[in-house]
Amino acid sequence: MTKALIIVFVKNIKLGKVKTRLAKTIGNQAAFEVYSELVKITEKATEHIAIDKRIYFSDAIIDSKWKGQYKAVQKGKDLGERMKNAFIKGIEDGYENIVLIGSDLPDINATYIKTGLQSLKTHDVVFGPAVDGGYYLIGMSKMHHFIFDNKPWSQSNLLEVTLNELQQNAVSFGLLEPLNDIDTFEDLQASAFYKSNIKLQHRIEQLND
C-alpha cells in the first residue's frame, strides 16, 4: 500500500496578520474572523480522512488545532521554499504520495483531497487550480524541486508558469476542479460560504457600521 500524507499550511490567526487584502475593505477584526472560520472548514475537511497529516503553522504551533496531529513551523524565506521543505521532509520520512493544501478555501472538503491523492497514481504531480491563477492544492509522488524555485508567488500567472515548466521537463500532471480562495471582499461576497453564513454577515456588518 502506498504511504500517503496530507500537509496543511496554516497562518497563525493574528489580528492584522491574516487576510490583509481582505482587511483593507472590511477591517482587521472582520478579516480575522473570516480566516478563523476558513481554518475551521479546513480542519473539518481533513479530520475524517484516515491518512497521516502534518500541520505546518506560519509562526508558532497552536495546540488547540488539529489535536493529536504532527505539527511544525514552516521554514523558508518564501512560500515556495516553505512548501519545498515540507515536501522534502515528507519524502525523507518515507511518504510516497503527498498533497499540500492551504487554509483559506471555503469549499474545500475531503473529496478534493482524496481525488488529489488518487490522481498521483497516474500523474507525477497534481494541482487544484485556484480561480485567481494560483493553486489551492499541490501533490507529488516524487520530488521536483524546480516547481518551487523562482516562481511568481501570489501572481495571476503562477499556475500557468508552473505548468509550462512541467511540460518542458516532460513531467505529467493532473488538474482538479478549480476553487476560489478568499483574498478580497468580492471573493468573500461571491462565496456560498459567506452567503449561507448569516451570523458572519451580521458580524461583519456590525464591525463596519
Automatic annotation (TrEMBL):
Record Gene3D superfamilies: Spore Coat Polysaccharide Biosynthesis Protein SpsA, Chain A (3.90.550.10)
Task: Determine the domain of life of the protein's source.
Answer: Bacteria
Please give the coiled-coil regions recorded for this protein. none
**InterPro entries listed in its UniProt record:** Nucleotide-diphossugar_trans, Trfase_1_rSAM/seldom-assoc
Q: Which PANTHER family match?
A: GLYCOSYLTRANSFERASE, SLL1095 PROTEIN
- What's the name of the protein? TIGR04282 family arsenosugar biosynthesis glycosyltransferase
